[in-house]
Amino acid sequence: MKKKVIRISTIPMSLDVLLQGQLRMLAEHYEVVGVSSPGADLEKVEKREGIRTLAVPMERKIAPFKDLVSLIRLIRLFHREKPWMVHSITPKAGLLAMMAAWICRVPVRVHLFTGLVFPTTTGLKQKILMATDKLTCACATRVIPEGKGVKRDLEQFNITSKPLEIIGNGNINGIDLDYFAHTAEVEEKAQAYRKKDTTTFCFVGRMVRDKGINELVVAFEKLHQAHPDTRLLLVGPFEDALDPVLPETKRVIEQHAAIEWMGWQKDIRPFLAASDVFVFPSYREGFPNVVIQAGAMELPCLVTDINGCNEIIEEGVNGCIIPSQDQQALYEAMEKLLDTELRETLRQQARPQIANRYERKALWKELLQFYRSLEG
Fold it and tell me: What is 123-189 written as a DSSP string?
């Protein structure tokens, strides 16, 4: 009989996007059950991955009463299912699932930290976030940081004294190199977004302050004034309720002739294929998938010196690294990357660097070995 593994995230989109294919792979060796808040994405995961799924409503934000209700529901679920392992991702699911699994004495309790918020916060909020992460770790039997930067922060802030083991070279699921490639289909779609005799910078992600959008827009305005043959593609949704950009930033995005906002896109490959440089001036990350995806699409990447980004990108090899929240450094690096010879040098190394370190099936093999090591 296969051992039962519960994989849990706060919202179903995380299971759908972050663990695509991984759950099906694990289901060949274990009885896998996916758990998250209810939604169409959860049903999608069940069909695509061939696993059973269960819905437990969970709030992403702090909501004491609703969190208590969710905790009780998870305790009942774990008591009924009697899993061998509970493996959580995302902060709220990690806190609630590790507490519930500890209460139910689930033998193996694993939490994967995909990113940490507290290092970039201060005051009471930072203390609360650190306390919840400490509680998550205290209830877990194993803690996995997604990358070296996350591991370093967990150690430096004394979040846990437990051993911290990174799976493979980091990242939650690796990358499908057959999908993120210049296929004929992608090239055909990219033609609609290409512009001749223009250097195109591309950003993909949420259009929020923490992604460095304010700095990016100001830097690009200055760049375009000096170099009119430049363009900025912005791919992703605004989140005005959570972390809005400045009103003037949004106004420039809407009105600037050389800035094209594409909104949320299910398939980002054509936009990457139509670009010359990927720019990602984020304030904080765990291990950003989009930088790996851009590299796989043969784009030199301009990133900030933060967790994950500075592990994926090597200065002068497959991209450039600048200080976070430094508008002038961002402008200077973008101007530097107008050099076609430099871009070509970086481009030639972009995909090989990703392929050698983050190929999906290689990471799956490492993950399966990790699971096997816990069977005892």
Answer: HHHHHHHHHHHHHHHHH-SEEEESSHHHHHHHHHTT---S-B---TTS-SS-B-TTTSS--HHHHHH
Question: CB neighbours of 1 closer than 8 A, spacing ≥ 6?
Answer: none
CB 313 within 8 A of CB 148: no
Dihedral sign from CA coordinates of 159, 164, 170, 174: negative
> Cα dihedral angle (110, 43, 289, 62), rounded to 10 degrees?
-60
* Residue among 285, 302, 51 nearest 153 (CA): 285
Q: What is the pLDDT of residues 146-205, one digit of tens each?
A: 999 999 999 999 999 999 999 999 999 999 999 999 999 999 999 999 999 999 999 999
Q: Are 188 and 266 in contact (CB under 8 A)?
A: no
pLDDT, tens digit, for every residue of 1-10? 899 999 999 9
Residue 99's pLDDT is 98
- Please report, rounded to a whole number, the percentage of residues in the chain having pLDDT higher than 90: 94
Would you say 337 and 366 are in contact if contact means Cβ atoms under 8 Å apart? no
Provide the 10 A C-beta neighbour count for residue 178.
Answer: 8
**Helices within the chain (DSSP H only):** 12-18, 22-27, 40-49, 64-81, 91-103, 123-139, 148-156, 184-190, 213-226, 247-255, 269-273, 289-296, 309-312, 327-336, 340-358, 360-373
Q: Which residues pair with 359 in a beta bridge?
A: 175
70-74, 137-141, 240-244, 276-280: least confidently modelled range: 240-244
**Confidence check: pLDDT of 58 > 90:** yes
Tell me the C-alpha distance between 303 and 317, whole Å: 13
- 79: tokens are 């008591």
Neighbouring C-alpha atoms within 13 Å toward the C-beta of 72: 6
